[in-house]
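Worked problem 6 (solution included).
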Amino acid sequence: MNYLKYSLFSLIIIFSSCASPKAFVFKGMKSINVEKASFGKNTFKANFEYTNPNHFALTLQKLDCEVFINDQPFTKYHLDSAYYIPANTDFQLPARMEVELASIMKHSVDILFNKPMKITVKGDATLTKGFFTKKVPISFTTEQRLNLKEILRGTN
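Solution. The predicted structure is:
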């Protein structure tokens, strides 16, 4: 009987310590620059800053998101590398995105006149903590000015 009590107590402690992870909080796009420019696919590199609101560290295994500008599909954002994310801290994730010239041209007036654009990212992140894996939704919207001169210089 004591064995059953201790086993049940142990299971309760194990399951209560495995809290479900909260989604990351988006803080902003830290930088964006052109890696490759062409009349076909253009490659942009950016850094997105987030906060891990969880009181435990996590490992980001995978990230699959779609990026929208002014509510129109722009590109996809994928990460397949594992990133260790400490508890209760800010962190940055790199983004390498391929964008067709036609998608850029749709927003060329806003980019040329440095107007703020609504940028939305939606998708999910696969997170692990020990043996546990969970998909967490990613959804954020921000306004960002994409200064073409700074992007081409790599200083935005």
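Discussion: Strands lie at 25-36, 41-52, 58-69, 72-79, 83-85, 89-100, 116-129, 132-145.
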